[in-house]
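It is worth pausing here to work through a concrete case rather than discussing structure prediction in the abstract. The textbook approach is simple: state the sequence, then state the predicted structure, then interpret. We follow exactly that order.
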Amino acid sequence: MKKRLLVIVSAAIILSAVSCKKDSENLSEIAEKEATINGLFNDVQNDMDETIEEKETSGYAVLKSLSAENQRVITVTQGAGDSTTFPKTLKIEYSNYTSPEGRIKNGSITFTITGKYRNTGTVITTSFENFSIDGNKIEGTKTVTNTGNYEYTVVIANGKITFADGGIYTRTSTRTRKWIAGYDTPRYIWDDQYEIMGSATGVNTAGDNYNHTISEALLIKLNCAWVSKGKINLQAGIRSGSINYGMGDCDNQAVATVNGKDYNITLRGRNRLNN
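Step two, the predicted structure:
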């Protein structure tokens, strides 16, 4: 009887250790995917910022291709040639376009704009059509509202990422985006910096409900391909952890912490060659 009990206890200990190890690995993978998703949606936001700034400066010219092979084409489909009348609609079409950050884009993004980016009350709605970055398909609706004092509310509804490996990650989020630098140079966006706060919910690739909350403001620099600073607390099923982006340096490193153990994460992409 004692021998049988010892076997049962030993098996339970082994199973518990394997389960804890599996949970730790799973949550570290979830943290890595969270970092990837942040990068994908930030990339879309940066495209929006760059495109709208350019079009406001040019008076919303009808068409402009940003590559000799027409791999990235911007079209004003509503409100062309007039910088004062709204709403306006912009469309960016990508065809195997490699961005300066080294990301390959396909499909299209459409922006519907109710006013100038800097005007309080302006709403910019982003939708996607067969759009992907590095083979990761992005779906849903992203709405950015200028609430005044250089602050914007960013809402993602029905967000969905289908990763290149087939995994699916859904997202609903509300975040506050505060413009903290670069607003006094309207014709140059690469000195712009934003602080991001807020939370996100959804279902991860493991099928677990998750809840992510930014506990220390994320720092976004438009001249940097990655989140430069901040911390996100992660809750997935019964597991919890965090991801820390560092103290402000522009680098591709982050740290996921799970059960008191740190896991280094290398973020995808590269920095712009001219920055």
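Step three, interpretation. The chain has one domain: 22-266. Residues 22-266 form one domain.
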